[in-house]
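During the reporting period, our protein records have gained a structure token line. One record among many is quoted in full directly below:
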Amino acid sequence: MLTQRLRQLERDGLIVRTYHPEVPPRVEYEISDFGRSLAPLFAHLADWAGINLDRIEQARHDYDAKAAR
């Protein structure tokens, strides 16, 4: 699953994969410049999550309470 996700991110141009033909083989991944352009979006999402954390926790509690019945 992780390999599939990394390949999709590489295909989308969000990460760069570097293969090192050594024994054992080694692969490195790094975020691309295009991927870095998402940083403001993730910062905004993190701010939103921080502001709404209490509501998220309450929703989880309510859901789990219903599921336990």
